Each structure stands twice: as C-alpha cells, then as structure tokens.
Amino acid sequence: MKKIIKAVCLIGILWGTLIPVYATTTAKNNIFPSYTGVTAQLVGNEINVRNYPSKYGKVLMLANEQELHILGQNDKWYRVSVKGEEGWVSKDFVEVPDDSFIPYSKVLGEEIVDYGKLFIGTPYVWGGNDLRSGVDCSGLTQRVYAGFDIDISRVSYMQAKDGIPVTKSQLQPGDLVFFDTSGVNNGRISHVGIYAGNGQFLHADSTRGVMLSRLSSNYYTRNYVMGSRILHYF
C-alpha cells in the first residue's frame, strides 16, 4: 500500500496537475480520495486577499503576481492559500487551466444558515435566549452568531447598527434582514432574521416559532426596512 501511495504522489508531481491524495482507513481497510488543491497563477499586483468572498470582506494581505494554491471556489471567488495564509481572491485575478475539479467551498454565512436551520421548530418566547426551549427574533440571531464566536447586540434595532448596510439585491447568506412590524412601516425596526439565500430568511415568528419565510411575501415586502452584513468584520 505504501508503494502505491508513493507512486500516486510521484505521478502528481511529474504531471503538475490536480490529483487526489489517498489515505487508508483501518476500520474498513479501504482507500478514499480527498481533495488537496491545485496550483494556479495570480495575475496582477497588489491583489486583495480577503477573509470573505465579497468586496466587503476584510483585506488580509495584498499579493503580487505569484503562484498560489486553490482550495475551493464559489461562483466568483477562489478560496486560496497564499504564503501559508488562507483567504479569498476574485476569479478575475487568477489564471487556472481547469477549475472543474475544484470543489465548492461553503462560506461562513452559509455555515451560519445551516446551523440556524437546526433549530427550525423551536417555539417563540419573548425575551428567550435558548435555541431549543425558546427564543425571540433577536435572541435567535444573537445565539446563532454566538455559535461561531461572533458577538452581536441583543435587540434587533441595535443589531442593525452592528454591521454595514446592504441593499436587498446584495444580500448574501448570513446577512441580517430587518423589518418594521408595527403595522405602519416607518422604518422603526422591530423584527430581524438571517438571510438564507434564494429569497428566504430564517427567523423566530411570534406565532409559529423558528421558521423559514420568503422575503417576497406581501407582508415582508411591505414591512422590509434594510439588510446588514455582520460578516464584513470577521
């Protein structure tokens, strides 16, 4: 088995192409491929390497034209390793012969949404902070974010000030969405949820508990106030 592994690694070095690296499992006495990345070329100077795949992501470093290691991708960005540090670079500045083998990488916002969905069905409790026994809308958002060591304010109108404003068309999974549910939308925030992608958001409804709703519904379209991106800072 060791000879096989060495041979596979040697072929990969000689070809200079993307290959799987194999590992043994003692329990099943079998081998499974796992993705290890591919080398590509960064084009240009002083290219932003960001902590999040968005122009709002924090700049971790400025990289000049050089080789880098691609670890994953989404529609417009590559997750890369540059000088031993991981970050995201726009695909506009990366030359790679073939990225069809590069797996999709979930970003932090998507992981936050996935975590929040685990609590669908939790009852609504005014002032509640427990993701299993009961939460209110801002308790849900605060506790879900806390699961990723991200500290945000406790009440909805303060949470709106914790991030940077984004338009509805700019919303990405993990962003917060805010509403005025007083009956007359004068922009006074009274409800918050987490944008889940595909026009949906996760929130603690006062009658049905934690659930997914559509932003395009008449009620939430009428009462929508703003979106905010917390992850810009992390």
UniProtKB/TrEMBL annotation:
Record-linked Pfam families: NLPC_P60, SH3_3
Record's keyword terms, sorted: Hydrolase, Protease, Thiol protease
InterPro entries listed in its UniProt record: NLP_P60_dom, Papain-like_cys_pep_sf, Peptidase_C40, SH3-like_bac-type, SH3-like_dom_sf
One biological process term in Gene Ontology: proteolysis
Source organism, top-level taxon: Bacteria
All copies of domain NlpC/P60, residue ranges: 106-231
One annotated GO molecular function: cysteine-type peptidase activity
Annotated family: Belongs to the peptidase C40 family.
Protein name: NLP/P60 protein
Organism name: Cellulosilyticum lentocellum (strain ATCC 49066 / DSM 5427 / NCIMB 11756 / RHM5) (Clostridium lentocellum)
